[in-house]
Design a protein that fits this description.
The complex is a heterodimer of chains A (244) and B (338).
Chain A lengths: L2 H19 L14 H27 L27 H10 L6 H5 L10 H4 L10 E3 L1 H10 L9 E10 L6 E7 L8 E8 L9 E9 L12 E9 L9
Parallel strand pairs in A: 1-2, 4-6
Antiparallel strand pairs in A: 2-3, 2-5, 3-4, 5-6
Helix pairs in contact in A: 1-2, 1-3
Chain B lengths: L1 H7 L11 H29 L6 H34 L2 H7 L4 H11 L7 H13 L4 H14 L1 H10 L4 H25 L17 H32 L2 H8 L4 H13 L6 H6 L6 H10 L5 H11 L1 H26 L1
Classes of the chains: A alpha/beta (244), B mainly alpha (338).
Chain lengths: 244, 338
């Protein structure tokens, strides 16, 4: 792999990273928000390394040489035998520019069970909810309270949940679903709430559901799916950060 | 392209190609193809705008891009540190920093893993560089294994994921450090130098030019293998049915092994694996510990990265042995502490 190609490879990878992190918010489909400054720094570093490499290559090309023996890589011992695998770095670049994969959604959620990890508050008691009005909540928090709160803080409260629809096993039933990521999409966990009342939205459609928790006794299990009776289901556009 | 690589792969720097004209053509070919490819992508984007693939392909692509993008900053951190060691740290300093006796050097190097606040992607290039700079492989390998598992960032993440279970943090620290030290000692006893890919001698130039050259070298060597690891992890992530795990979770004894294998398959970053472990309902705490001890030391992405840095002969032997030691360490620590 020649010096020029190596330089271009660095620039391409760096540009792809900057494309999703600095010039758009596409990175939110793949990694958590907190990673943005590191992505920008990484992209910038790669572009700079590539530009410096290109400048060195250009200088070598322009410098008059007596014969082939002062060839480009001759005094460049470190870069000998760049492995052919380095070309694979073009794959994520192509994936980012051409495929531009959507964030994980209904397909992933359908293939995994709802996970409600026993929160620390399960022993110490949950913080009280705001006293008035419908309470907007993360889906994972709703699941945690519904499954683990022995104090029953959700009883009789109207809550507002945001997620996408996935079909449930029974006819006509559906889940409001959201994925949580910690680091990147590879570690996505699924939270589901079974919605009763109202027609099922199309699979994958983003909705905001206002409703009441319907206790069904299936509490205290990691994989329990709580039930919500919907008062209102409203279609919304996909939020900027599709994960919770 | 093949011709060009055979030319460049010659170990002797003086073995300059004898046909400059032909070489120039090849160079131009490779560069030209890349530029033509870029133009094709720019045109292709217009046609593909708004196109979405089948659901499994989208999910595969998202996990693939996610693993690559997420690992990149950590890989670069490791590459920059490695280049800095190559360019600015005198080789003799590192040789003298550790005692000659492996019984002392290995535990010290293992404990030194506390200082590198990254995940496993950062530790591979650094360990590779340490070996190139004359550090005993046994000590460098102990560092390679311990640093992604016992650094403060990972331990705090573990404490947050398992709130109210500080004994699990302690168990993770102890089991990981023990695995790293045992593997280092095993290497000093049974390891053969020829398993490790020989590195360019370390008495090369120093200073800024060397820094840039090492940075390029390490990034290109590790980068392609990171992509292979990303593809493997994405395929397994999308293909392995989670229901199967549920069925296996109930069997005592098997559950530890199941989560250890899952850690290898999923290749979750060590800074996030505690949260994934916490979400694996139905498994025993010891099984979750095994997931967190094995994951940072052996996983699909890491085996590929090690193959790129140390060679394939090393990667599979070392990963297999590490897997066995890590599972044993996790099982013993779990039985003792949890």
């Amino acid at each position: 792999m020649s010096r020029e190609v190596r330089a271009l490879l660095h620039i391409l990878v760096g540009a792809a990273v900057l494309h999703i992190s600095l010039f758009s918010e596409l990175y939110l489909r793949y990694v958590r928000r907190g990673l943005r400054p590191y992505l920008i720094a990484s992209g910038a570093l790669l572009v700079v390394v590539g530009l410096v490499g290109a400048a060195v290559a250009a200088r070598e090309l322009l410098r008059p040489t007596d014969d082939g023996h002062s060839g480009h890589d001759a005094h460049h011992g470190h870069s000998h035998g760049t492995p052919r695998t380095a070309w694979l770095l073009l794959l994520p670049v192509l994936a980012i520019y051409l495929l531009q994969p959507q964030a994980l959604g209904a397909y992933t959620a359908q293939h995994s069970d709802s996970t409600t990890v026993r929160p620390a508050a399960a022993t110490g008691g949950f913080a009280p909810l705001p006293a008035t009005g419908p309470v907007p909540m993360r889906l994972a928090d709703f699941d945690a309270r519904a499954v683990w709160d022995t104090g029953g803080s959700l009883k009789g409260r109207q809550v507002v949940l945001t997620g996408f629809a996935t079909p449930a096993a029974g006819a006509g039933g559906w889940y409001l679903t959201r994925l949580t990521i910690t680091c990147c999409a590879a570690d996505a966990l699924t939270s589901k709430v079974e919605i009763r009342g109202g027609d099922a939205p199309p699979k994958g459609a983003w909705v905001e559901v206002t409703g009441h928790w319907q206790p069904d006794g299936r509490t205290g299990q990691d994989s329990a799916v709580p039930v919500l009776t919907a008062d209102r289901v409203r279609g919304i556009t996909e939020p900027g950060d599709p994960y919770e | 392209m093949a011709d060009e690589i055979t030319v460049e792969a010659r170990p002797n720097p003086d073995a300059v190609p004898t046909a400059p004209a032909g070489r120039a053509r090849l160079r131009g070919g490779s560069l030209g193809a890349l530029v033509a490819g870029m133009l094709a992508v720019l045109v292709g984007r217009r046609f593909l705008d708004g196109w979405t693939g089948p659901a499994w392909l989208e999910a595969w692509g998202a996990v693939f891009v996610a693993v690559c993008v997420q690992a990149l900053p950590f890989l670069l951190l490791g590459v920059v540190l490695s280049a800095a060691i190559a360019a600015f740290v005198p080789a003799r300093l590192l040789e003298r920093a550790l005692p000659r006796n492996p019984l002392l050097a290995v535990p010290i190097a293992g404990a030194a893993g506390v200082v590198l606040p990254g995940c496993e992607c950062a530790s591979v290039p650094v360990a590779g560089r340490l070996i190139a700079r004359g550090v005993a492989p046994a000590a460098a390998l102990a560092f390679l294994l311990s640093s992604p598992a016992i650094n403060p960032v990972v331990l705090v993440a573990t404490a947050v994921a398992f709130r109210g279970q500080p004994e699990l943090v302690a168990a993770r620290f102890l089991a990981s450090l023990a695995t790293a030290v045992v593997m280092g000692l095993l290497w000093s006893r049974f390891g053969r130098p020829e398993w490790l890919r020989p590195r360019v001698p370390s008495d090369g130039p120093t200073g800024r030019a060397a820094f840039r050259a090492s940075l390029e070298h390490d990034f290109l060597h590790a980068g392609g293998f990171l992509v292979i690891g990303g593809m493997t992890a994405a395929t397994l992530n999308v293909a392995v049915p989670r229901g199967l795990l549920k069925d296996l979770a109930g069997l005592p004894g098997v559950s530890v092994l199941v989560l250890a294998v899952l850690a290898v398959l999923l290749a979750v970053c060590s800074e996030a694996d505690a949260f994934v472990a916490a979400g694996l309902s139905g498994f025993s705490t010891t099984a979750k510990l095994a997931f967190m001890v094995v994951g940072p030391m052996v996983d699909a992405k890491l085996i590929a990265l090690q193959a790129g840095t140390f060679g394939r002969a090393f990667a599979w032997r070392f990963s297999a042995a590490t897997f066995a030691v890590a599972v044993t360490a996790a099982a013993l620590t779990g039985w003792w502490l949890l």
